[in-house]
Design brief:
2 domains, 5-stranded parallel sheet, binds flavin-adenine dinucleotide, 35% helix, FAD/NAD(P)-binding domain
């Protein structure tokens, strides 16, 4: 029996599992490896930070989805890859051999140490849950008498949305307290990829929330000293094991450690390895690290994994992924409104938030049907069994 290892509970792998629910792959053992069972859907993260959704409402529950797809769920984390031996070593020391490996492990951030401010890195997304809970706990204990300062470092969509969402949440939880917002960016303008009208709408949203913006400036000791909380939202970075040649083996990566892939989503050095979403570096074109790309890659990945494993035996050729040049961006502003931008067009209003909410809920709903068939309580013992068998495989 062949083994396919899906590493990372990312957006593309959710779609691969969804495809497997509809059309299983006989003769292939599918193993899903990821450190957390709940995978937040990026489009709804700002709405959760603002308090519009609960965390479980914005997350895909991977163990039941894996089970519905006939796959084994294995809670763990890739620590080292040996592509020559087709083997991954997990953080607990166990190993997993594969015939085909698919990486959808996202990206991370490495904020500098701070002396005064509490740093809230936005990536990895799956770790934001615990970090945000501890910030909210602290907020409940803060004395009401002095202003509380939240600063975002980074002028992209994630920093913009997260700052407005966090400000809205803190103010709603304790209306008697004063909360100041700031945003620092090395750039000369905000949200560079957006339409000019959308950028102007973004500036108005920041004004409504009383946010001061500092251009041409980044993290420094004065930001640390003057802030209580710093939302770290600089560009996505590759995980440590991808950046370290001793841990990624001979896998080809770009100069930042992102896995170099071709148009069929395969590693340019190892055709048995696929990579999608943030962790990948797309052939010849710098794609923004956005969930929308991981989602678009999902169906092509599902089809190409099947072809690479030759299931069914007469599987067709590998498909090419064609990334969209322009896509609809919908940015939440934390106040029940959103900004829509596509190509040169931009607009904002409460209608855009309702539209975004509908699109995002519809995306998540496709995974719920499968999850409902295997509610979390029903998978506790099979999960324990899988971990036991999995540790038994350690070399
Ligand atoms: C606040 C915020 C808002 C955003 N809003 C949007 C938006 O509206 N639209 C948009 O397109 N993009 C948005 N983004 C960007 C988006 O979050 C990412 O581009 C997207 O999540 C990448 O998806 P992915 O499938 O590559 O990885 P992820 O969704 O990050 O999933 C990676 C998975 O891999 C797992 N993993 C990590 N390391 C390992 C390992 N070593 N072994 C095994 N598993 C591992 C993780 O736990 C996780 O389950 C936002 C980002 C932030 C921070």
């Amino acid at each position: 029996m062949k083994r396919l290892v899906l590493a990372g509970a990312g957006h593309a792998h959710a779609l691969v599992l969804r495809a497997l629910v509809q059309q299983p792959m006989p003769g292939v053992e599918v193993v899903v490896v990821s450190p957390q069972p709940l995978a937040p859907y990026s489009g709804m993260v700002p709405g959760w930070l603002a308090g519009h959704y609960r965390f479980d409402e914005i997350a895909i529950h991977f163990p039941p989805l894996a089970m519905a797809a006939g796959a084994r769920w294995c809670q763990g984390e890739i620590d080292t890859l040996d592509p020559a031996r087709r083997q991954v070593r997990l953080a607990d020391g166990s190993t997993l051999d594969y015939d085909v490996l698919s990486l959808n492990v996202g990206s991370t951030l490495q904020p500098p140490p701070a002396e005064h401010a509490q740093i809230l890195p936005l990536r990895p997304l799956a770790m934001l849950h615990g970090r945000y809970d501890s910030l909210l706990e602290r907020w409940g204990r803060e004395p009401a008498g002095r202003p509380f300062v939240v600063t975002a470092v980074g002028g992209g969509a994630a920093g913009f949305e997260a700052l407005l969402a966090v400000l809205a949440r803190l103010r709603a939880l304790r209306p008697e307290c004063v909360v100041h917002g700031g945003l620092v960016t090395r750039g000369t303008r905000l949200l560079p990829g957006l339409a000019p009208t959308a950028r102007r709408a973004a500036q108005r949203a920041l004004d409504r929330a009383g946010v001061t913006v500092q251009f041409g400036s980044g993290w420094c000791s004065s930001v640390d000293r003057s802030s209580d909380v710093v939302i770290w939202a600089t560009g996505a970075e590759a995980h440590g094991w991808q950046r370290d040649p001793a841990r990624r083996g001979s896998l080809a990566v770009d100069d930042q450690g992102f896995v170099r892939i071709d148009e069929q989503l395969r590693s340019v050095s190892h055709p048995q390895v696929f990579a999608t979403g943030d962790c990948a570096s797309w052939a010849g074109l710098a794609l923004p690290k956005a969930g929308v790309h991981a989602v678009r890659m999902g169906p092509v990945l599902a089809s190409n994994l099947r072809a690479a494993l030759r299931v069914p035996a007469a599987a067709g050729d590998l498909r090419q992924h064609r990334p969209q040049r322009h896509f609809l961006a919908l940015l939440a502003t934390g106040d029940g409104r959103a900004i829509a931008s596509r190509g040169p067009f931009g607009a904002e209003g409460a209608w855009a938030w309702r539209w975004k909410d509908r699109i995002d809920r519809r995306f998540l709903k496709q995974f719920i049907t499968a999850q409902a068939a295997f509610p979390p309580a029903s998978i506790q013992s099979p999960l324990a069994e899988v971990s036991a068998r999995h540790s038994g495989e350690s070399s």
